[in-house]
Amino acid sequence: MNAQRTIRVALLTAALALSAHAAESAQPRIRILATGGTIAGAQASQAQYGYKSGAFNVQDLINAVPQMKDLADITGEQIVNIGSQDMNDEVWLKLAERLNEVLAQSDVDGVVITHGTDTLEETSYFLDLVVKSDKPVVMVGSMRPATAISADGPMNLYNAMAIAADLRSKGRGVLVALNDTIQAGREVTKTNTSSVQTFGSLNRGPAGLVNTGKITWFGVPSGRRGPESEFSITDVKALPRVDIIYAHANMSTDLIDAAVKNGAQGLVIAGVGDGNMTQQALERCAAAAKSGVVIVRSSRLPSGLTYRNNEVDDDKYGFVASLELNPPKSRVLLQEALLKTKDVKEIQRMFGEY
Predict the structure, then answer these.
(1) What are the distances in angstroms from CA 218 to CA 3, 133, 188, 189?
(2) Cα–Cα distance between 118 and 189 in angstroms, integer?
(3) Residue ending a domain, choose from 173, 194, 228
(4) Known catalytic residue: 38?
Protein backbone atom coordinates (compact mmCIF):
# COMPACT_ATOMS: atom_id res chain seq x y z
CA MET A 1 0.00 0.00 0.00
CA ASN A 2 2.80 2.40 0.91
CA ALA A 3 4.58 1.55 -2.33
CA GLN A 4 1.43 2.29 -4.36
CA ARG A 5 0.93 5.54 -2.50
CA THR A 6 4.52 6.53 -3.18
CA ILE A 7 4.06 5.82 -6.88
CA ARG A 8 0.83 7.87 -6.97
CA VAL A 9 2.54 10.79 -5.25
CA ALA A 10 5.46 10.58 -7.65
CA LEU A 11 3.14 10.51 -10.67
CA LEU A 12 1.13 13.44 -9.33
CA THR A 13 4.30 15.44 -8.70
CA ALA A 14 5.54 14.72 -12.22
CA ALA A 15 2.18 15.70 -13.69
CA LEU A 16 2.18 18.98 -11.78
CA ALA A 17 5.73 19.68 -12.94
CA LEU A 18 4.79 18.99 -16.56
CA SER A 19 1.70 21.16 -16.19
CA ALA A 20 3.74 24.02 -14.76
CA HIS A 21 6.28 23.66 -17.57
CA ALA A 22 3.50 23.64 -20.17
CA ALA A 23 1.97 26.76 -18.64
CA GLU A 24 5.35 28.46 -18.64
CA SER A 25 6.10 27.48 -22.24
CA ALA A 26 2.62 28.65 -23.25
CA GLN A 27 3.73 32.24 -22.73
CA PRO A 28 4.35 34.24 -25.90
CA ARG A 29 8.02 34.09 -26.86
CA ILE A 30 9.27 37.61 -27.49
CA ARG A 31 12.74 38.62 -28.66
CA ILE A 32 14.13 42.06 -27.85
CA LEU A 33 16.42 43.56 -30.48
CA ALA A 34 18.30 46.44 -28.88
CA THR A 35 19.83 49.37 -30.77
CA GLY A 36 20.67 51.79 -27.94
CA GLY A 37 19.10 55.22 -27.56
CA THR A 38 17.96 57.21 -24.54
CA ILE A 39 16.14 54.19 -23.10
CA ALA A 40 19.61 52.69 -22.59
CA GLY A 41 21.21 56.03 -21.69
CA ALA A 42 23.00 57.16 -18.53
CA GLN A 43 23.64 60.56 -16.97
CA ALA A 44 26.86 61.58 -15.29
CA SER A 45 24.61 63.06 -12.60
CA GLN A 46 20.85 63.03 -12.05
CA ALA A 47 21.07 66.81 -11.68
CA GLN A 48 22.26 67.11 -15.28
CA TYR A 49 20.09 67.18 -18.37
CA GLY A 50 22.75 65.68 -20.63
CA TYR A 51 23.41 61.95 -20.91
CA LYS A 52 25.16 59.30 -22.99
CA SER A 53 22.94 57.15 -25.20
CA GLY A 54 23.47 53.39 -25.31
CA ALA A 55 25.25 53.09 -21.97
CA PHE A 56 23.36 49.89 -21.02
CA ASN A 57 22.93 46.66 -22.97
CA VAL A 58 19.86 44.57 -23.68
CA GLN A 59 20.26 42.35 -20.63
CA ASP A 60 20.41 45.43 -18.40
CA LEU A 61 17.08 46.56 -19.84
CA ILE A 62 15.50 43.15 -19.28
CA ASN A 63 16.79 42.98 -15.71
CA ALA A 64 15.43 46.47 -14.98
CA VAL A 65 11.83 45.35 -15.59
CA PRO A 66 11.48 41.87 -14.01
CA GLN A 67 7.67 42.16 -14.23
CA MET A 68 7.95 41.52 -17.99
CA LYS A 69 8.57 37.85 -17.20
CA ASP A 70 4.88 37.60 -16.26
CA LEU A 71 3.98 38.66 -19.80
CA ALA A 72 6.28 36.62 -22.00
CA ASP A 73 9.24 34.30 -22.33
CA ILE A 74 11.89 36.90 -23.15
CA THR A 75 15.24 36.69 -24.92
CA GLY A 76 17.36 39.56 -26.19
CA GLU A 77 20.22 40.46 -28.47
CA GLN A 78 22.16 43.64 -29.17
CA ILE A 79 22.15 44.80 -32.79
CA VAL A 80 24.00 48.09 -32.20
CA ASN A 81 24.27 50.46 -29.23
CA ILE A 82 24.05 54.01 -30.57
CA GLY A 83 22.08 57.20 -30.25
CA SER A 84 19.47 57.25 -32.99
CA GLN A 85 20.86 60.51 -34.38
CA ASP A 86 23.58 58.19 -35.72
CA MET A 87 21.13 55.75 -37.30
CA ASN A 88 22.02 55.14 -40.93
CA ASP A 89 21.18 53.00 -43.96
CA GLU A 90 23.78 50.36 -43.05
CA VAL A 91 22.24 49.80 -39.62
CA TRP A 92 18.74 49.83 -41.10
CA LEU A 93 19.64 47.03 -43.48
CA LYS A 94 21.36 45.05 -40.72
CA LEU A 95 18.41 45.49 -38.37
CA ALA A 96 15.81 44.63 -41.02
CA GLU A 97 17.69 41.52 -42.12
CA ARG A 98 18.00 40.27 -38.55
CA LEU A 99 14.39 41.14 -37.79
CA ASN A 100 13.14 39.09 -40.73
CA GLU A 101 15.36 36.18 -39.65
CA VAL A 102 14.04 36.28 -36.10
CA LEU A 103 10.40 36.60 -37.14
CA ALA A 104 10.79 33.56 -39.40
CA GLN A 105 11.74 31.39 -36.41
CA SER A 106 9.00 29.13 -35.09
CA ASP A 107 10.08 29.76 -31.51
CA VAL A 108 9.53 33.55 -31.74
CA ASP A 109 6.02 35.03 -31.52
CA GLY A 110 6.93 38.71 -31.71
CA VAL A 111 9.72 41.26 -31.45
CA VAL A 112 10.31 44.40 -29.40
CA ILE A 113 12.93 46.84 -30.73
CA THR A 114 14.51 49.39 -28.40
CA HIS A 115 15.52 52.57 -30.23
CA GLY A 116 16.37 56.21 -29.70
CA THR A 117 13.56 58.69 -30.30
CA ASP A 118 15.31 61.10 -32.69
CA THR A 119 14.85 58.92 -35.77
CA LEU A 120 12.40 56.35 -34.41
CA GLU A 121 9.66 57.50 -36.79
CA GLU A 122 11.90 56.84 -39.78
CA THR A 123 13.13 53.42 -38.65
CA SER A 124 9.61 52.29 -37.79
CA TYR A 125 8.34 53.21 -41.25
CA PHE A 126 11.32 51.65 -43.00
CA LEU A 127 10.75 48.37 -41.18
CA ASP A 128 7.01 48.61 -41.89
CA LEU A 129 7.84 48.53 -45.60
CA VAL A 130 10.32 45.62 -45.57
CA VAL A 131 9.26 43.23 -42.78
CA LYS A 132 7.92 40.00 -44.29
CA SER A 133 5.88 38.74 -41.35
CA ASP A 134 2.57 39.61 -39.73
CA LYS A 135 3.89 38.78 -36.25
CA PRO A 136 3.88 41.73 -33.82
CA VAL A 137 6.79 44.16 -34.05
CA VAL A 138 6.82 46.93 -31.44
CA MET A 139 9.36 49.73 -31.29
CA VAL A 140 9.98 51.45 -27.97
CA GLY A 141 12.13 54.25 -26.63
CA SER A 142 12.11 56.84 -23.89
CA MET A 143 12.56 60.56 -23.47
CA ARG A 144 14.48 60.24 -20.20
CA PRO A 145 17.63 58.17 -19.68
CA ALA A 146 17.60 55.03 -17.55
CA THR A 147 19.30 56.87 -14.66
CA ALA A 148 16.81 59.75 -14.51
CA ILE A 149 14.85 60.38 -11.30
CA SER A 150 11.62 59.53 -13.10
CA ALA A 151 12.73 57.41 -16.04
CA ASP A 152 9.95 56.58 -18.50
CA GLY A 153 11.83 53.73 -20.18
CA PRO A 154 10.84 50.86 -17.84
CA MET A 155 7.09 51.46 -18.17
CA ASN A 156 7.40 52.02 -21.92
CA LEU A 157 9.29 48.73 -22.23
CA TYR A 158 6.74 46.88 -20.10
CA ASN A 159 3.90 48.22 -22.23
CA ALA A 160 5.75 47.37 -25.45
CA MET A 161 6.17 43.80 -24.20
CA ALA A 162 2.46 43.61 -23.42
CA ILE A 163 1.62 44.80 -26.95
CA ALA A 164 4.01 42.32 -28.57
CA ALA A 165 2.49 39.51 -26.48
CA ASP A 166 -1.08 40.46 -27.44
CA LEU A 167 -2.52 38.25 -30.20
CA ARG A 168 -4.51 41.25 -31.45
CA SER A 169 -1.25 42.97 -32.44
CA LYS A 170 -0.78 40.52 -35.29
CA GLY A 171 -1.08 42.02 -38.76
CA ARG A 172 -0.99 45.65 -37.61
CA GLY A 173 2.49 46.33 -38.94
CA VAL A 174 5.27 47.97 -36.97
CA LEU A 175 3.90 49.70 -33.88
CA VAL A 176 5.44 52.29 -31.57
CA ALA A 177 4.86 52.33 -27.80
CA LEU A 178 5.62 55.41 -25.69
CA ASN A 179 3.83 57.23 -22.88
CA ASP A 180 0.81 54.89 -22.71
CA THR A 181 -0.04 55.25 -26.39
CA ILE A 182 0.27 52.89 -29.36
CA GLN A 183 1.12 54.53 -32.67
CA ALA A 184 1.40 53.08 -36.16
CA GLY A 185 4.89 53.21 -37.65
CA ARG A 186 3.49 54.82 -40.80
CA GLU A 187 1.70 57.59 -38.93
CA VAL A 188 3.86 58.46 -35.93
CA THR A 189 6.07 61.53 -35.60
CA LYS A 190 8.04 63.19 -32.84
CA THR A 191 6.48 66.55 -31.94
CA ASN A 192 8.44 67.88 -28.95
CA THR A 193 12.15 68.06 -28.17
CA SER A 194 11.99 66.89 -24.56
CA SER A 195 8.46 66.16 -23.31
CA VAL A 196 7.51 62.55 -22.59
CA GLN A 197 4.27 63.28 -24.47
CA THR A 198 6.10 63.82 -27.74
CA PHE A 199 5.00 61.04 -30.12
CA GLY A 200 1.73 61.42 -31.94
CA SER A 201 -0.04 60.53 -35.17
CA LEU A 202 -1.29 63.96 -36.14
CA ASN A 203 -3.42 63.07 -39.14
CA ARG A 204 -5.05 59.81 -38.07
CA GLY A 205 -4.57 59.59 -34.31
CA PRO A 206 -3.16 56.73 -32.22
CA ALA A 207 -3.71 53.06 -32.99
CA GLY A 208 -4.58 52.41 -29.36
CA LEU A 209 -3.79 52.99 -25.71
CA VAL A 210 -1.83 50.88 -23.26
CA ASN A 211 -1.87 51.42 -19.51
CA THR A 212 0.17 49.14 -17.21
CA GLY A 213 -0.01 46.50 -19.91
CA LYS A 214 -3.78 46.78 -20.47
CA ILE A 215 -4.50 47.49 -24.14
CA THR A 216 -7.36 49.25 -25.90
CA TRP A 217 -7.26 49.13 -29.71
CA PHE A 218 -8.81 51.85 -31.85
CA GLY A 219 -8.36 50.49 -35.37
CA VAL A 220 -6.08 48.88 -37.91
CA PRO A 221 -3.34 51.18 -39.31
CA SER A 222 -3.64 52.31 -42.92
CA GLY A 223 -1.40 51.51 -45.88
CA ARG A 224 0.14 48.33 -47.28
CA ARG A 225 2.76 46.71 -45.05
CA GLY A 226 4.36 43.46 -43.97
CA PRO A 227 3.74 40.50 -46.27
CA GLU A 228 1.54 42.74 -48.47
CA SER A 229 4.43 45.11 -49.21
CA GLU A 230 6.14 44.90 -52.60
CA PHE A 231 9.43 46.12 -51.12
CA SER A 232 12.27 43.88 -50.04
CA ILE A 233 15.85 44.21 -48.78
CA THR A 234 16.89 40.76 -50.01
CA ASP A 235 20.35 41.11 -51.57
CA VAL A 236 20.25 44.89 -51.05
CA LYS A 237 23.68 46.15 -49.97
CA ALA A 238 22.97 49.89 -50.01
CA LEU A 239 20.00 52.23 -50.34
CA PRO A 240 19.81 55.01 -52.95
CA ARG A 241 20.81 58.46 -51.77
CA VAL A 242 17.82 60.71 -51.14
CA ASP A 243 18.24 64.17 -49.60
CA ILE A 244 15.71 66.43 -47.90
CA ILE A 245 15.80 70.15 -48.78
CA TYR A 246 14.04 72.52 -46.38
CA ALA A 247 12.07 75.31 -48.06
CA HIS A 248 11.86 78.83 -46.60
CA ALA A 249 11.41 82.45 -47.59
CA ASN A 250 14.09 83.57 -50.08
CA MET A 251 15.05 79.92 -50.67
CA SER A 252 18.07 79.59 -52.96
CA THR A 253 18.87 76.79 -55.37
CA ASP A 254 22.38 76.08 -54.06
CA LEU A 255 21.45 73.08 -51.91
CA ILE A 256 19.44 71.55 -54.74
CA ASP A 257 22.42 71.86 -57.06
CA ALA A 258 24.80 70.43 -54.43
CA ALA A 259 22.60 67.43 -53.73
CA VAL A 260 22.27 66.56 -57.41
CA LYS A 261 25.98 67.12 -58.05
CA ASN A 262 26.90 64.82 -55.18
CA GLY A 263 24.81 61.91 -56.40
CA ALA A 264 21.32 62.22 -54.95
CA GLN A 265 18.95 60.02 -56.95
CA GLY A 266 15.96 61.63 -55.28
CA LEU A 267 15.09 64.86 -53.49
CA VAL A 268 12.32 65.49 -50.99
CA ILE A 269 11.37 69.14 -50.70
CA ALA A 270 10.07 70.00 -47.22
CA GLY A 271 7.97 72.73 -48.75
CA VAL A 272 6.12 75.64 -47.23
CA GLY A 273 2.36 75.24 -47.00
CA ASP A 274 1.15 72.57 -49.41
CA GLY A 275 4.65 71.68 -50.59
CA ASN A 276 5.48 75.04 -52.15
CA MET A 277 8.90 76.59 -52.82
CA THR A 278 10.34 79.67 -54.52
CA GLN A 279 9.93 79.95 -58.29
CA GLN A 280 13.70 79.59 -58.74
CA ALA A 281 13.74 76.40 -56.67
CA LEU A 282 10.72 75.10 -58.58
CA GLU A 283 12.48 75.59 -61.90
CA ARG A 284 15.69 74.00 -60.65
CA CYS A 285 13.77 70.98 -59.33
CA ALA A 286 12.03 70.69 -62.69
CA ALA A 287 15.43 70.63 -64.42
CA ALA A 288 16.64 67.96 -61.98
CA ALA A 289 13.52 65.90 -62.66
CA LYS A 290 14.20 66.03 -66.41
CA SER A 291 17.73 64.75 -65.73
CA GLY A 292 16.35 61.69 -63.92
CA VAL A 293 16.32 62.82 -60.28
CA VAL A 294 12.97 62.00 -58.66
CA ILE A 295 11.48 65.03 -56.90
CA VAL A 296 8.93 64.56 -54.12
CA ARG A 297 7.02 67.54 -52.76
CA SER A 298 6.19 67.27 -49.07
CA SER A 299 5.48 69.89 -46.41
CA ARG A 300 7.45 71.19 -43.45
CA LEU A 301 4.14 71.55 -41.57
CA PRO A 302 3.40 68.97 -38.85
CA SER A 303 0.05 67.79 -40.24
CA GLY A 304 -2.12 67.80 -43.33
CA LEU A 305 -1.68 66.41 -46.85
CA THR A 306 0.44 67.58 -49.75
CA TYR A 307 -2.06 67.21 -52.59
CA ARG A 308 -1.06 66.43 -56.14
CA ASN A 309 -1.53 69.28 -58.67
CA ASN A 310 -3.09 71.48 -56.00
CA GLU A 311 -0.85 74.58 -56.10
CA VAL A 312 2.00 73.14 -58.13
CA ASP A 313 1.42 71.47 -61.52
CA ASP A 314 3.06 68.14 -60.72
CA ASP A 315 2.08 66.70 -64.08
CA LYS A 316 3.85 69.54 -65.87
CA TYR A 317 7.04 69.40 -63.79
CA GLY A 318 7.24 65.64 -63.35
CA PHE A 319 7.02 65.70 -59.56
CA VAL A 320 5.59 63.31 -56.99
CA ALA A 321 3.25 64.58 -54.25
CA SER A 322 3.84 63.03 -50.83
CA LEU A 323 0.16 63.05 -49.81
CA GLU A 324 0.11 62.02 -46.10
CA LEU A 325 3.82 61.39 -45.65
CA ASN A 326 6.00 64.01 -43.97
CA PRO A 327 9.52 64.69 -45.33
CA PRO A 328 11.40 62.03 -43.28
CA LYS A 329 8.90 59.31 -44.18
CA SER A 330 8.80 60.48 -47.80
CA ARG A 331 12.55 60.01 -47.93
CA VAL A 332 12.23 56.45 -46.59
CA LEU A 333 9.58 55.46 -49.13
CA LEU A 334 11.47 57.10 -52.01
CA GLN A 335 14.62 55.16 -51.11
CA GLU A 336 12.67 51.92 -51.32
CA ALA A 337 10.86 52.98 -54.49
CA LEU A 338 14.13 53.83 -56.24
CA LEU A 339 15.33 50.26 -55.73
CA LYS A 340 12.55 49.28 -58.14
CA THR A 341 11.91 52.15 -60.53
CA LYS A 342 12.38 55.81 -61.46
CA ASP A 343 9.04 56.06 -63.19
CA VAL A 344 7.26 59.01 -61.57
CA LYS A 345 3.75 57.66 -62.16
CA GLU A 346 4.69 54.35 -60.57
CA ILE A 347 6.28 56.08 -57.59
CA GLN A 348 3.18 58.26 -57.18
CA ARG A 349 1.14 55.05 -57.00
CA MET A 350 3.40 53.84 -54.21
CA PHE A 351 2.88 57.05 -52.26
CA GLY A 352 -0.84 56.51 -52.55
CA GLU A 353 -0.71 52.91 -51.35
CA TYR A 354 1.96 53.04 -48.64
Answers:
(1) 60, 22, 15, 18
(2) 10
(3) 228
(4) yes
Residue range(s) defining the domain that contains residue 265:
242-353
Q: What is the pTM assigned to this prediction?
A: 0.90
What average pLDDT does this structure show over 257-270? 98
173 lies in the same domain as 88: yes
5: in domain: no
- Backbone angle region of 288, left / alpha / beta, with phi > 0 → left and psi within -120 to 50 → alpha: alpha
DSSP characters for 283-330? HHHHHHHHTT-EEEEEESSSSS-B-TTSSS-HHHHT-EE-BT--HHHH
How many folded domains does the chain comprise? 2
Q: Where are the alpha helices (DSSP H) in the chain?
A: 2-25, 58-64, 89-103, 120-130, 153-165, 254-261, 279-290, 314-317, 327-338, 344-353
Among candidate residues 38, 119, 189, 253, the one labeled active-site is: 38
Within a domain: residue 166? yes
Residues 91, 197, single domain; the answer is: yes
pLDDT digits (tens, 9 = 90+) for 15-41: 444 344 444 558 999 999 999 999 998
d(CA 185, CA 333): 13
Rounded Cα distance, 301 and 322, in Å = 13
Q: Which residues pair with 320 in a beta bridge?
A: 296
Here the CATH number for the domain that contains residue 129 is: 3.40.50.1170
